[in-house]
Amino acid sequence: MRVFVLSCAIALLLSISTHGAVVALTNAQRLARGLPILPPKFGRALPGYARTPIATGENPSPSFTSQNTFTGRILVKGHNGKSLGHLHNLASGINGINFGASSADLHVSFTTSRSEQGLIDIQAVDAAFPGPHYIGTTSSTNLATGSSTFVSFGNVIRTPAHSQPVSMGHHNADESAIWTFNPKTYQLSVHYVNRDGHEAKTTIAYNAHDNTIFFVGDVGAYNAAQVNPDNHVSPVTFYLDSMTKK
User: Which end of the chain has fewer CB within 10 Å, C or N?
Assistant: First the structure.
């Protein structure tokens, strides 16, 4: 009995540091000294292993926003925010605003990027015109502030994001992945890429006299270069209307 008590006293003395702090012994060391083992501690990481979010109480890393597919019609609004009508679905192609029955409105579909901030393609889903069925720019020039140049709007082939105009014969050069979508306002904005590979400040222009839509870099400069006032344009914006989301 005296030997056992002496062993316990020695083990207790060894467990105390010179500063009076208790040194943690392993269960093996405790058994060697005749001490009872300690109960297991949960939520502690093993050497070489990181603690899991469940053990630490941390939140898991946020996942990427999932891709979403939207369908609807494209509503055209004037610079004062007034609704002018929807894009027209014509056998000759897309251009202009439909002032007739809603059955002649163009319906479109697109899928947003994971960040919902990337460039997207917009595809006509009920096209009255022959393919290709993406919509974008159909001519090649450089848009810039102070320049009267413009690029045409119509149905195009699918092209890569940030691509320069892709030649489609002697007259056409297409870009499709030029759009961004704001899921809060439903606005569709355009980002044309010039022939030099740089993105241009792009405005959607509307000629009410001819009921035509195209893109310019500077509305004021374009209008100043027109001799006939009937050729003057005003800026418009596109919005997704009658939207469904998958």
Answer: N
Which phi-psi region, left, alpha or beta, contains residue 104 (left: φ > 0; alpha: ψ -120 to 50)?
A: alpha
* pLDDT over 70, % of the chain: 70
Q: Is 174 exposed, middle or buried (0-12, 13-18, 19+ CB in 10 A)?
A: buried
Which H/E stretch holds residue 56?
Answer: helix 53-56
> What is the rounded average pLDDT of the residues 71-81?
96
Q: CA quadruple 125, 128, 132, 136: dihedral positive or negative?
A: negative
Amino acid identity of residue 158, one-letter, is R
Distance CA 33, CA 241 (A): 79
Q: Whose structure tokens read 């870099």? A: 217
Q: Which residues contact 195 (CB under 8 A, 6 or more apart)?
A: 140, 141, 142, 164, 165
Query: Is the Cβ–Cβ distance between 72 and 244 less than 8 Å?
Result: yes
Strands 166-168 and 172-174, by their bridges, are antiparallel
> What CA–CA distance (Å, rounded) separates 98 from 76?
10
Predicted model pTM: 0.71
* Rounded Cα distance, 146 and 79, in Å: 20
158 exposure class (CB count in 10 Å sphere: 0-12, 13-18, 19+): middle
- Which tens digit of pLDDT belongs to each residue from 176-219? 999 999 999 999 999 999 999 999 999 999 999 999 999 999 99
Give the mean pLDDT of the chain.
81
How far is Cα 28 from Cα 6, in angstroms, rounded to an integer?
Answer: 19
